[in-house]
Amino acid sequence: MSREPRTVRPVANQRIDLVGTRVGLREFTRDDLDGVYRIVGDERVTSHLAFDARTRDEAGSMLDEIMERARAEPRSEYHLAVTAKGESTSDEVVGFVRLGLTGVRAAKLGYAVAADHHGRGYATDTVRTVLGLAFGPLQRHRVSAAVGPDNAASRAVVQRTGFTREGVLRDHVFTNGAWRDSVLYSLLVDEWNARRG
Ligand SMILES: CC(C)(COP(=O)(O)OP(=O)(O)OC[C@H]1O[C@@H](n2cnc3c(N)ncnc32)[C@H](O)[C@@H]1OP(=O)(O)O)[C@@H](O)C(=O)NCCC(=O)NCCS
């Protein structure tokens, strides 16, 4: 029988600062409002997310709430800013990634990249980098991602990073004025370790 730790205290009070191949992942600050609004205020991005496009004020409130949850102890959410390493404005937010700790050593994954930066491999590198946090210091056993059935770009990201399709969550989110299914994908720690050789 496998012996699993009963309680896990993941990186308490630690500010996250991670470097991938193409992106950096760091904590949000209030200075990130412009970057956040470029993402969550843009219907090209939010049409694939579980919420509708936000106004600038709403984006500010969202940012405040993210920063407040980042200070919670114990911390149950890692909602991080994605920056692009190779670009001249390399500390500017070009995306976000969210790991919500849940269940029995599980986490839910979400992410988005600003529309002007799509197709540069940022989401793929973001997911690979944050999985290192999830399966490393945060000791997750399972990470799941719920992807809209028509979201081919996001499907490409989870498939390339090793996730397995599990099934369909019916009427999973209410967005753009209608209920929408999601396709659920998951990755387990052993699969992650096997891919890393
Ligand atoms: C999904 C998303 C994060 C991908 O970001 P990205 O930085 O462009 O992703 P990457 O560049 O790492 O990879 C995207 C892949 O999808 C492919 N792709 C893009 N659009 C596609 C489409 N319509 N059909 C098929 N594949 C597509 C790209 O070609 C790329 O694959 P490649 O590198 O083999 O060419 C971005 O499109 C986005 O923010 N979408 C809106 C929000 C969202 O959907 N979030 C995820 C919710 S589950």
Give an overview in words.
The structure is a single chain. Strands 1-2-3-4-5-6-8-7 form an 8-stranded mixed sheet, with helices on both faces. The chain is built from 6 helices and 8 strands. It has a domain of 127 residues: Gcn5-related N-acetyltransferase (GNAT) (Aminopeptidase), CATH 3.40.630.30. By secondary structure, the chain is an alpha+beta fold. Helix 1 packs across helix 3. Bound molecules: coenzyme A. The site of coenzyme A has 21 residues, from strand 5, helix 4, strand 6 and helix 5.
Give a short synopsis of this structure.
The protein is 29% helix and 31% strand. The chain is of the alpha+beta class and 197 residues long.
Strands, helices and their partners?
Elements: E1 17-19, E2 23-26, H1 33-40, H2 43-46, H3 56-70, E3 77-84, E4 93-102, E5 106-113, H4 122-135, E6 142-147, H5 152-160, E7 164-175, E8 178-188, H6 189-195
Parallel strand pairs: 5-6
Antiparallel strand pairs: 1-2, 2-3, 3-4, 4-5, 6-8, 7-8
Q: What shape does the CA trace take?
A: globular
Q: What is the mean predicted local confidence, pLDDT?
A: 92
Largest pleated sheet: 8 strands, mixed
* Helical content class: 25-40%
The CATH architecture of one domain comes to 3-Layer(aba) Sandwich
Nearest-angstrom radius of gyration?
Answer: 16 Å
Q: Which ligands, by name, code or SMILES, are bound?
A: coenzyme A
Proportion of strand residues: 25-35%
Q: List the total number of helices.
A: 6
